[in-house]
Amino acid sequence: MGVAYACGTCGYDLRGLNALGECPECGRAVWSSMPSPGSEEPIGVSPSGVRMIGLTSILLSWTAIGGIVLGGVAVLMGGRLLKRARAAGGPDPRGVRAGVWFGFIGAVLGVAWLLATFGVLGWMF
After folding, report:
1. Residue 78 to residues 66, 71, 83, 92, Cα–Cα distance (Å)
2. CA of 21: how far to CAs of 29, 41, 98, 123, in Å?
3. Lowest-confidence range among 68-72, 81-85, 114-118?
4. Rounded to an integer, what distance in angstroms lies between the CA atom of residue 16 and that of residue 5?
5. Phi-psi label, residue 105: left if phi above 0, alpha if psi -120 to 50, beta otherwise
């Protein structure tokens, strides 16, 4: 038998139910009524709090995708400028090499953030 705990909304006994499931009586997420580790108080995250966490994750994912796209554009455009300058026999345009490196770093960090967000690298969750 598992530890007894009741649904925070309707009082239904949630013992034995999957933590990722819902209360059969009222539909509240089971995990939000579970006691936090080392405590008998429920975690108590409201549905609006869960929604806010989800929206924040989506926003950060889109930011990472933007970093990948803009980083890739910076690398491609900077590479073309460097290639033209070298073909013309002139010096490298000022700051282009730094822009290419910053673009590359931004793209790599964006990819790392997405992989971490979705649990592929195991850094988060």
Report:
1. 18, 10, 9, 10
2. 6, 19, 50, 25
3. 114-118
4. 10
5. alpha
Residue 38 identity: G
Taking only the tens place, the pLDDT of each residue in 19-74 is 788 889 998 888 777 766 665 555 555 667 777 877 887 888 888 888 889 888 98
The pTM of this model reads: 0.51
> C-alpha angle with apex 15: 10 to 16, nearest 5 degrees?
130
Structure tokens at 120: 């592929």
At 38 the pLDDT is: 60
How would you label 24-55 residue by residue, b for 16+ Cβ within 10 Å and e otherwise?
eeeebbbbbbbeeeeeeebeeeeeeeeeeeee
Tokens encoding 109: 């960090």
